[in-house]
Amino acid sequence: MTFSEKYKDEITDILSRYPVKRSALIPLLYVAQRDQGYVTESAMQEIAQLLRLTPPQVYETITFYTMFNLKPTGRFHLQVCKSLMCALVGSDTLFGWIHAKLGIGPGETTADGLFSLSAVECLAACGTGPMMQVNDDYYEQLTEDKLDRIVSDLRSTGTSPLKSGPFMWPEAVESADRPSS
Amino acid sequence: MPKHELILLKNMMQPGYTGSLSDYEKTGGYQALRKTLGKIAPADVTAMVRKSGLRGRGGAGFPTGVKWGFLPKDYQGPRYLCCNADESEPGTFKDRQLMERDPHQVLEGIVLSCYAIGAETAFIYIRGEMVLGSKILEHAIAEARAAGYIGKNILGTGIHADVWVHRGAGAYICGEETALLESLEGKRGLPRIKPPFPATHGLYNKPTVVNNVETLANLPHIMSRGPEWFAAIGSPPKSTGTRVFCVSGHVKRPGNYEVPMGVTVRELVYEHAGGMRSDQPIKAFIPGGASAPFLTPAHLDVKLDFEHVAAAGSMLGSGGVTVMEEGTSMVWAALRLMEFFYHESCGKCSPCREGSSWLVQTLRRILAKRGRMEDLETLLDLCKNIAGRTVCAFGDAEVAPIQSTLKYWRQEYVDLINEAEAANLIKLEPVGKG
Prior knowledge:
heterodimer; A: about 180 residues; alpha+beta; Arc Repressor Mutant, subunit A; Glutaredoxin; 2 domains; four-stranded mixed β-sheet; 9 helices; B: about 425 residues; alpha/beta; Rossmann fold; Ubiquitin-like (UB roll); de novo design (two linked rop proteins); 3 domains; about 45% helix; globular
């Protein structure tokens, strides 16, 4: 099944929000990334057709933004903030712990394909540093023990209760939870 | 601790407050909307906001009511409101809390703003990484739509305002309002040359207002308690209301503290944030996010309002206060921020695109004890040729860490270079000779 067939309803919903089609580009790229873990070339071509854009128009946009993966990454993408505010409270140490536990540095993926690590810039959680984002979730005020637990939770259950949130209506938000990006 | 009345953080500080519609309504939520829509003319709402003195909380501090007033009066086509929730300025994390903990306060502000400017569609441009925040907002929008606060014919007044969440995808520059519009149009987030301004040629070339989350969250309170009340808070006449200051760095209790504008950094750090984490003295602080020049302990009693911080040589910016203790290397700190700007330069203007790379390389060299004394002049020369020579304010922002650390802590640079020369690590002829 093609991308546009598989997500027909969601695509229609997204398109209905914008008076100009091209605005739906980033939202549709997110749908594609959720589907495969990265945005495939065929998805890009389909999206170009849907929005009546040329493939280069899609490509020039996707390459501007850091959150789109153009190739497969590990199942859990650890994105550790390295900006000044987190660095003041120990983000460099965090990289050291991750390297000791998983044997990967920024830009690398574990051999089993489970964990990828990236050093990223500020994620707007400077009051709760050091912190990282794993796929969609924030993990804040990290310590070595916490990191241990998160890694073992991710390995065993695919998620960890140590993530930030949800802050309101847990049931409602969770049930409406479309796994994204 | 001096007690200040909380306005924006008041609800979420109540034990058990979830931010749901019913919780928000119990605190008087959406009463401002009921009181305003169809009962006060849009032009009068704009006049009230102007009178309150509310200024943008995103960074530039432009008076909100004045910004609204720039929209063409007689334009017949659609107009748009964009809520700037791209919060990406290092040191800033207030909008995230406002959206995640009390989303309806932001939504009520958005609908009030739509009403004032005549927009029937609003987009919340939230930074892509804030997945949780976007889900919470979408859920809150659905609640508000079902209750008749958002959508068609709001509360039976015949007024329409639809609100959509649009996620960015990881680009600091998209917090710049014209880059935000480009991004929302599905393009690379490159800032536009101004004029024309978004007020006349904004989203899809239509009249558009871009307001920050915290700015919008103030609106329900201004409408329910009156502009005079708001204008008396803080540091009138030019810096009215409260600010949610984001305190980070070497303090005991980092976090968001809402205080009237005009309190000092000393109060913020020692009375609210619990003082310094290892009781070391403060060496340096940034008063308004990464784009604001560093200040020194001599500035601890500067009032945190737009005018006083500017007079001290920095800017209030986004309200991100980062505090560094004695012992922090200022060259290292400047480099960390410079690496951020280098990573985030959008590449449109060559002074910024190339200059940020040269600045990072030069700083790295100095920090690695391979610097030369001429490097200091090179740094300042580069800064001079970046600031003011770019399409957007990014160019001015990126030189702030270097210019200010060189101004106050030049000796640290000199010491590193002297060490390099003493260690005889590198011998180079001066640039441009031989």
